[in-house]
Prior knowledge:
With 426 residues, chain A is of the alpha/beta class. Chain A has eight helices and 20 strands. The longest helix of chain A is centred in the C-terminal third of the chain and has 17 residues, at 385-401.
Amino acid sequence: MAELAAKSDPTEAMIASLTLPNATWAKPAREGALARLRQSGLPTRRDEYWKYTRPDTLTQVTAPEAEVLVTDEAPMFDGTDRLKIVFVDGVFDAEASDDLSLEGISIERLADAQSDLHWAKSLYGVLEERGQTPVSRPLAALNTAFATDGVLIHVKGKTSKPVNLIYRHETNTSDAILHNCVKLEPGAEMTLLENGPAAARFNKVLEVDVADTASFHHVRAQGRDHERRAVTHIFARLGAQSAFRSFTMTVNGQLTRNDCVIEITGDDALAHVAGACVGDGDFHHDDTVFITHDALNGESRQVFKKVLRNGATGVFQGKILVKAGAQKTDGYQISQSLLLDDDSQFLAKPELEIYADDVACSHGSTSGAIDEDAMFYLRSRGVSEGEATDLLTLAFLAEAVEEIAQEDLREDINARMGAWLQRHRS
Amino acid sequence: MLSIKNLAVKLEDEDKQILKGVDLEIEAGNVHAIMGPNGSGKSTLSYVLSGKGGYEVTDGSAELEGVDLLDMEPEERAAAGLFLAFQYPVEIPGVGNMTFLRTAVNAQRKARGEEEMSAAEFLKVVRTRAKELKIDADMLKRPVNMGFSGGEKKRNEILQMAMLEPKMCILDETDSGLDVDAMKLVAEGVNALRSEGRGFLVITHYQRLLDHIKPDVVHIMADGRIIKTGGPELALEVENNGYADILAEVA
Ligand SMILES: Nc1ncnc2c1ncn2[C@@H]1O[C@H](COP(=O)(O)OP(=O)(O)O)[C@@H](O)[C@H]1O
Ligand SMILES: [Mg+2]
């Protein structure tokens, strides 16, 4: 009790600093989320779930500043035909965005969605709330309560091109809270792209409801700005024979916490979550994944690779929960780090919790350095030490990048990471 | 071409002397063979020449065309024209064989101040060379040496050699693990590269390979030293009588 009281002060201070949007249909969801936030309180270092990542800069009232990085790199996904939706420091930019109409899909801004009978009523905050057990995720509840904007995407068919949410960062002090919902009807398909540093501090939630036989692809590129901080949550629910694939690349950023909570509720569904990150210096990156199998014959894969140098820290907390009756589950989890020096560290907590007897689940976690034999082999062929390191580093990341189905996106991601490695050669 | 004088080498982390004063002069256009019992230091010699870590040169020198090799990084030695076909080629998951070859060719060209090979030209050359060595398109696409049989790995070494066109080629037991047909392919690959300006050092256990790649000079190495040097007939002597006679003779 004493601990709760001690925690409630920063939580109340944060709540007092924010304004509950004047929402119509979302009002009950927002109020419910606020109640959840009050009940759990903001995370502290003492929370088991935040053992390896200090939440203080995410929970303090004022966001620490982050300098905007000026770069002449071409925008991400530039070679891919896509529908662009731009937010600058968390504020929708109509001029920079495309017209929000695309066949087979309806896209609306959260801030614009006023109708009392909005479809998103059955999704907004709903999966987030389900994701609060068995572990509470207070920063996601905070997001549902106070999100200022985001997009609501309803997919009824196969979309002709990806939707790209672009998060620009232009002000050193920006503090953004965005909430996106995607609902896929049976048989529907879509690719969602996200990129950009977003803000000095970014709190983002993505809720995805994948109906039976629907398919969702997600490729996200976080990062660029060195000092930015972000906490993101993905909550997904998967119907029968549906597919959910999500890949995240993270380069730079002082603090990133990516939670991914997936619930497989229909038989024969597939969930793949992958991440590749490269970090230098005070880079701290935390992937926390929780996949629940609650149906027959589900397949889940978690593939997380981290390249760390100059004292960077990588964290992986990954769990596969197989409920009683979820027979024939095939769960795979691998988390690996490539430590380019002795100062960097990787902290991993892989977990399996299985209540069904006919399942195949495996997990592994490794930390290693560049393979000296491979290094010498490459150098003996004339490849410089720097170039050989880059080649072997990209090779290390390949298993995660290969989770991206579309070749153009995969190449874009590889090129980004290759350029980063070249810039950060020691 | 390659001039090795009194080369003495110990392990870096251990008080173990492996090479105990090796002398070797290989002239351009010539093929030298080194034979010798297991553990005599043949691979160590090839590694030290190409710059592998873990060894300490305690005495002597090694020069390629008058330039000190031992002072250079491995990639500089490669750019200077040295090539080692590994006894145990390394598998590199995640790096495509083509990417690897192209990176290597262009890295060396760049280091020598030459123009990089265009993608089209590279593709043309690599296809021709691969075909000669019966290396199929699938092997070129796969990660470096991954899932290759022993023989395929060795042929891949020769492909790299053919692409890089080095001045001084060291082949470390390239024949071990090869069947007769594969050995012929490898020998043809090597013979195709034989030229006035190129030197070869062929490390082998067997006369077999030397039937196909005719050496000019044969050396016997034992316990870190070259104990006997002769013509091609020396290899035949080893084939027939083993090393015992030669070792006894020297002792
Ligand atoms: N890195 C190493 N660590 C320990 N021993 C080594 C190492 N390299 C070579 N040696 C030892 O040096 C000797 C020569 O080895 P090597 O050069 O491989 O001989 P060869 O190729 O003639 O069979 C052997 O006794 C071997 O065990
Ligand atoms: Mg050997």
